[in-house]
Amino acid sequence: MKLIRFGEPGKEKTGVIIDNKRYDTSAFGEDYGEDFFGSDGLSRLATFIKTSKLPQVGDGVRLGSPVARPSKLICIGLNYVDHAKETNATPPAEPVIFMKATTAIVGPNDDIIIPKNSVKTDWEVELAIVIGKKASYVDEADAMDYVAGYVLHNDVSEREFQLERGGTWDKGKGCDTFAPIGPFLATPDEIPDPHNLRLWLKLNGNMMQDGTTANFIFDIPHLIAYTSRFMTLLAGDIISTGTPAGVGLGMKPNVYLKPGDLIELGIDGLGEAKQELKAYS
Asked: What does the angle CA 105 – CA 30 – CA 136 come to, to the nearest 5 degrees?
């Protein structure tokens, strides 16, 4: 299945994509969040779809994040060797974990707001995993059983806030609008091999990132098992798996985002998204 949420920000309804058409599933009565994923919601939704006449949703209707605000949005840093090298970082011996504020989550085509006083806002196309059930101290061999689906994520980053202001990375990662997610969540049956997906990002029509998840340093089972040693993962939580080379920080000279810039990005099987940069006001 491909799950969507659509409508005005904060008032999204649930839906699905079937044969490239959008349908409203709000009569199912549950949002796509922790309770839904943690109570076999995907199976129950599949049964509902088979037995219901679903209203169609117009192509022009705004899409929100396909996952209602999760308890955690966890990110993995430096998970591609080429990205570590371009930022002059040593490829890590263990996964680098940081958090993005869940208030950063927006829809896939919503504007990205450059924060007040920012001069180094950057982009990062990433594959993200949605957790399907409560996970703690998961064995790597069982880790894929905890995946509800996959989503496209732009891990927008303010590099000065992240790297030059002291402390951890989080304050350069969690600004409002810094986590566009979607257009849809694809369940695992839609993505036969998440470790062989092309992911790409364009800035103003120019290809900046063009990589593959085949180049992960740490694969998805390892990331789920490893993260679950340090925190309980709840259904609906998101783990973003890192970005390949091609970010603005890695260019010489550096390239950073400015008002009016247009980002387009996509991942095989997970659709495409488009975001315009706007100044804070």
From this structure: 65
What is the C-alpha separation between 15 and 63, in angstroms, rounded?
A: 10
Amino acid at 204: N
pTM: 0.97
Can you tell me the distance from the alpha carbon of 64 to that of 184, in angstroms, rounded to the nearest whole number?
Answer: 9
Mean pLDDT over 159-165 rounds to: 95
Both structure tokens of 159: 């590099």
How do 179-180 and 105-106 pair as beta strands? parallel
If you search the block for the tokens 């829809």, which residue do you land on?
A: 107
Strand partners, 233: 135
List, for residues 101-154, the tens digit of each pLDDT value.
999 999 999 999 999 999 999 999 999 999 999 999 999 999 999 999 999 999
Task: List phi, psi (to 5°) of 211.
Answer: -130, -170
pLDDT tens-place string over residues 167-196:
889 999 999 999 999 999 999 999 999 999
Pairwise CA distance, residues 35 & 40, whole Å: 9
Nearest to 122 by CA among 157, 84, 151, 170: 157
The CA-atom distances, in angstroms, between 207 and each of 140, 156, 210 are: 35, 17, 7
Nearest CA among 17, 13, 49 for reference residue 30: 13
